[in-house]
Amino acid sequence: ENVDLQKTAFLLRKAWTLYSVTPLYRFRRARLRDYARLLSAFIAAEKQKGLAVEVGVELDIKVAMSSLPDLRGTEQDQAAILVQLSSRSRASSRNSEDKLLWSGWFCSVYGDDFSENVPESFTCLPLFLTHGAESYTAMVGSWFQKTFDCSFRRLAISPLNLSWMVAMWAGCKLDRAASAVELIFSVPHLPQSLDISYAIHPEDAKALWDTVQKTPGEITQEEVDVFMDCLYSHFYRHFKIHLSAAKLVKVSTVVASAHCDGIIKILHSQYLSGVLMLLTELAISQIQ
Amino acid sequence: MDETVAEYIRRTVLKIPRDEIKTMLQKWGFLSEAQLQTLNFHQLKDNVSQEVVQLCEENSADIKQAAVLDIIYNHIYQNKRMWSVYQMKKSGEELEYFDITDFKKKFKERLRSALKNVTITFKEYEDNAIWIRVAWGTPHKKPNQYKPSYVVYHSQTPYVFISASVLKSTLPLLCQALIVASNYHDIREMELRSHSLNSLKDIVFKRYSQNFQTYNPKPLQGGNVEPQSADLRIVQENRSEKERIHRLNREVFGDGPQPKLEFAQYRLETMFKSDPKIDVLDKKEPFRCLVKFSSPHLLESLKSLVPAGMADAPLSPLLTCIPQKARNYFKIKDKKGFFPEGFVSP
Predict the structure, then answer these.
(1) Among A47, A110, A197, B259, which one has the highest count of C-beta atoms within 10 angstroms of its own C-beta?
(2) What is the rounded distance in angstroms from the CA atom of residue A198 to the CA atom of residue A235?
(3) What is the pTM of this model?
(4) Chain A: residue nearest B299 by CA?
(5) Range with the largest mean pLDDT of A167-181, B62-76, B260-274, B280-294
(6) Is A59 helix (H, G, I), strand (E, B) or coil?
(7) Distance between CA atoms of residues A100 and A85, nearest Å
(8) Which residue windows are transmembrane per the record (chain B) (predicted)?
(9) How far apart are CA A47 and CA B209, in angstroms?
(10) What's the total number of domains in chain A?
């Protein structure tokens, strides 16, 4: 874990919307400042065209782009790129602080298998995470698409992947008190919709996972299936409801929470790398 | 007129949807029909409420009248609040004649002896429901009119429905005043909560259609049943299974509409038992879970689970007992000595 805690504090406890991004063509890390200026001009032009985000208030949007060398898996990974949009209201005084409006960052954590097979002129940062208004995301995405010939796609998280996450994270050992391991299901196609929240005491969930997992540090699909089957059958025993037939919509643990619409919240820096690695993998499989 | 009263009336009127304002003011009866005629309801609501306040000024409204308007609003929009159910216990079997005047007097006395600054308002409705509104103050501050408690008491029953103030410390005092005023000796909170006050009443007063055995020899009709196919055997099996499910559902849920609840919560403290083929967790400690079911109409939703193939018939008694047990919060432990197909909930 070579991650500098201070530098990554910004990404904890925020809900990030996930996208997969195809490799960026002729992206030059040395030109980040230039890119920031170009993006800024692009956004200003978009607003003048009438695609304004804020109605009424005059906002100068400032763009900052930076490199995060510690946010990566191995040296083979590209370092993460952070893009931030801030505003300084023209009406306010010169001393006023910039208000952070939107953040987005590109990253690759243990994505070497993918980047190995990509030509030199391309930069691989397959995972894109955003926080802030959708309209800003659209503008930033649009500029990157035009400039680097890449494409973005929302990264949905399937119930299969959600169950991987909950199994993995339920087994995490933490120094501090853990919150419940929660699975949220929705039962579609009923005349009256039904949501089911199944929250397990973190110690008990971890105890269950520990008896299921055979090799520490390694997780197999079979182990995840057994873990989930155990949870489903304990539930069935009480309620006679086939939870496996319901749609797993969200999972939440002390480490992180993930929603099937492709929204993630990382709560603890201790397992940051593991979470990002899993997400990078999902992004890569969506691209391929 | 006190400007805090004026402001309170103004804000209460603002809450009312435009089309309802006139009716509600008429129900209130504080402004005359002539005064109501002078109001222009087709302007901005801000202006309507200002005009209402002016009329109230003419009539010198005080907080007591304003509180009545608030009860009327909350009676009509009762489903905006969360209601809990309390049950009172009598020491003896004495049938006492309920005297409303006596009740009100004792209730006010009990509260005022403990707390000088309270606003207490009563309103009786046709269905024998007594609505009580209490706004709470402190020895040094006037009552906060914006965080009152509401109580609905049907005097022929031991049940009280409370939408408590967010000022939680006031609840014990409220409960005490209720038992003193109604001549009961104890009150306990039931594990039953919902936004739908009427559904709560349906459940505790047993006004919903309860499950009873019905002999239903007619085959199932309607769109559920597959059309006849060449292979008669398949259709027959399917039909009889669907009929069986339909019949079991009727036995369990009854025929009529279900009371409207939004959620049920189960705290499970039962042992984890897995398929013996899988070598997993076999602790001596319970597997602690908290399960919460939510739906715009929970019981209807549960009723549809078996026909939808999501659950096996008959549906678990943990779910079907909700109206009979009059609770939607449960704590489930293993029954001692039994193989854990049986559960107890204390």
Answers:
(1) B259
(2) 9
(3) 0.81
(4) A192
(5) B62-76
(6) strand
(7) 6
(8) none
(9) 61
(10) 2
Q: Which residues of A touch B294 (CB under 8 A)?
A: 194-197
Other beta carbons within 10 angstroms of residue B322's beta carbon come to 22
Burial label for B275, CB within 10 Å (0-12, 13-18, 19+), is exposed
Which of A180, A195, A246 has its CB closest to that of B295? A195
Mean pLDDT of chain B: 85
Please name every residue paired with B186 in a beta bridge, in sequence order, or none if there are none: B89
Size of interface A-B (CB pairs under 8 A): 117
Cβ pair B304:A212 closer than 8 A: no
Range of the domain at A46: 5-154
* Beta-ladder partners of B291: A198, B266
How large is the angle between the packed helices A159-170 and A272-287, nearest 10 degrees? 160
Question: pLDDT for B143-184, tens place per residue?
Answer: 999 999 999 999 889 999 999 888 888 999 999 999 999 989
Flag whether pLDDT at B289 surpasses 80: yes
Contacting residues for A153 by C-beta, under 8 A, at least 6 apart: A19, A20, A286, A287
Judged by CB atoms closer than 8 Å, whether chains meet at B295 and A194 is answered as yes
Regarding whether A146 and A97 lie in a shared domain, the answer is: yes
**What tokens were used for A111?**
């994505």
More confidently predicted of B226 and A211? A211
Q: A106 and A164 share a domain? A: no
Return the closest-CA partner of residue B250 out of B219, B212, B208: B212
Q: Is the pLDDT of residue B139 over 80?
A: yes
Q: Is residue A280 assigned to a domain?
A: no
pLDDT at B264 (0 to 100): 95
Residues in chain B: 346
Longest dimension (CA), chain B: 84
Domain edge (last residue) among A108, A128, A154 = A154
With CB atoms and an 8 Å threshold, state whether B280 touches A230.
Answer: yes
Per-residue model confidence as pLDDT tens digits over A83-134: 999 987 655 555 567 889 999 999 999 988 888 888 889 999 999 999 999 9
